[in-house]
Amino acid sequence: MLSPVVQPVGLMTPDRSVPSSPTVCPAVASRTTPSSAAPVDLSDLARRLQKAISFSKPPSPAISSSSSSSSSSTSSTPSSLALPSPGLPIQFIFKKPEYNNHYHETHFHRPKPKDSLIWSDLRQFFSPLAEEDQRSDFGNQFRQNIESRYGKWGRFIGKGAGGSVRLIRRDNNSLAVKHFRSRLSQESEKDYIKKVTAEFCIGSALHHPNVIQTLDLIQDGPQFYQIMEYCPNDLFNVVMSGMMSRQEIACTFRQLLRGVEYLHGLGIAHRDLKLDNLVLSPLGTLKIIDFGCSTVFRCPFETNITRSKGIYGSDPYIAPEQYTQPTYDPRQSDIWSCAIIFLCMTIRRFPWRAPHARDPSFRAYCSNPQLQKAHLLKLLPRECRPAIGSIISLDPAERTTLQDLMKDSWVRDEDVCTVDAPGAHHVHHVTHPSSNERANLVVLSPEPPGRMAEREKRRRGY
User: Fold this and answer.
1) Domains by residue range for the chain, with CATH
2) Which parts of the chain are coiled coil (predicted)?
């Protein structure tokens, strides 16, 4: 046993045989003023406290205040307080948490206990959706009744690898609903949900006149639905009608570059630009849709570019470096796709089926790039040849950048439609014009204008 040490008045002794100061109790410790000015050896006190802590053990929560081994001073301690170990002041004792039912209910989200079998069966019989409402699967904050919120289902308007698109209407207002494909058998649930939410997060963050508006994401069981703005005019059908003029094609291409410039400014690359992913609003404004293949190549407030890996997009529009390089700049790939879109709008056919050596047309283009490029550019209007020729270079390092392309005189001075005002020197063909028609909108007819005029003349007997 330790030798007795003279302690100053007001300090607790580690020896429990010596009664503590009258001003100190097991529950409350109050400060007293020493009656003498004797110096205190702090190093010796700290050494004794450390020795007492090393030889003591935390008390068990099961020890009751009425234990026979407790002293008269500790017998009055409430049962909710832990008993101090021998030689350790009460202010150094921490209560051990009690892991009871209250702790588990407040610290863990556990499902409620199921009811009895009879009551559960009766409840499922009278309310079949009761169990569905209690599910805690991912994205339950998005679960809603789509029809009660947005209206009645309409016809299907499109289908692709990422899912199908269907109309939904309420009060003469239509929205497009993308029903994402189901999860594949070899695809984990984590990867599937990551893909769905990534497309929604990118689309919902974009706000530009030439980019489609993404409004909402809804989960219904294992299925996900994305609510979007609806544009009724498919650019592919307008192009294949053969009724687009040079000025109309140039305006559409200029709007496409504006949308891509906005995406690249936010650090986002589309990676699947094609005619099928371009639509026209009732006012003739071009909109970029479908961000299922999009990627973030630059984070905000950063300058480093994350290069892409793998092949993305549709074969005729894919840039050749995706087949030849392990990594590539997705911005240059988007610019290449824009040039192929312009070629398709002008000559109404693809220059090749896919940009790899197995395709004979592209192999011929690679055999003599300068000569084949000249032959291809002869099919285009003279004023746009320098700009398009600078894009369709096989080497992405020699390909023009989007910033330089926007400074080109043909691109910069072209008559372009905006949301506020139409172009002054051209018209736009649409299949579903707006009720507030612009002067430059022409309804796309199922037959060429000349054939319709001849039939009308015969009908009137001219």
Assistant:
1) 1-32+42-110 (no CATH), 140-229 (3.30.200.20), 246-279+287-412 (1.10.510.10)
2) none
Residues 136, 108: Cα–Cα separation, whole Å: 14
Inter-residue contact 51 to 86 (CB < 8 Å): no
Contact 266, 201 (CB under 8 A): no
Query: pLDDT band for position 197 (50/70/90)?
Result: very high
- Please tell me the distance from the alpha carbon of residue 192 to that of residue 386, in angstroms, as a whole number: 43
Give the annotated binding-site residues for ATP: 178
What is the gyration radius of the CA atoms in the chain, in angstroms? 38
Q: How far apart are CA 134 and CA 142, in angstroms?
A: 14
Residue ranges at the known binding site? 178
Residue 367 has pLDDT above 50, yes or no: yes
Kindly report the backbone phi and psi dihedral angles of residue 169, in degrees, each rounded to the nearest multiple of 5, phi listed first: -125, 145
Catalytic residue annotation: 272
Distance in angstroms (rounded) separating the CA atoms of residues 4 and 18:
9
Alpha-carbon distances, residue 218 vs 147, 150, 155, 289 (angstroms): 11, 11, 19, 19
Structure-token match 């949900």, residue found: 193
